[in-house]
Amino acid sequence: MEQEKDWRLTDQEPYLMGKMLVRKTYVPPRPDWDHDHCAFCWATLMQNGEAGTYKEGYVTEDNQCWWICPPCFAGFKDKFEWTVKEE
């Protein structure tokens, strides 16, 4: 399937194109927060790793607000020209 027709692409370019990402274990940003979602497929990232969730993924270095699950990272890393910084 061509990436341009991929259902996961919903205009993420303005905030994710060319970003520096950090691969890291998910940690909630505050005590009353237990998960985040992939910016592409909405997969759940959680610290406890419940079935069907990811315990780690890629997050933007600036303010760490956009998470990307490993499969979406692999599928879009070239299109979005990401670089990865080790944690």
Question: What's the quick description here?
Answer:
This protein has helices at residues 13-16, 70-76, and strands at residues 20-25, 35-37, 44-46, 56-60, 67-68, 83-86. With 87 residues, the chain is α+β, with helices and mostly antiparallel strands.
Set out the fold topology.
Layout: H1 13-16, E1 20-25, E2 35-37, E3 44-46, E4 56-60, E5 67-68, H2 70-76, E6 83-86
Describe this structure in words.
With 87 residues, the chain is of the alpha+beta class. It has one domain. It has helices spanning 13-16, 70-76, and strands spanning 20-25, 35-37, 44-46, 56-60, 67-68, 83-86. The longest helix has 7 residues, at 70-76. The chain is globular and about 35 Å long.
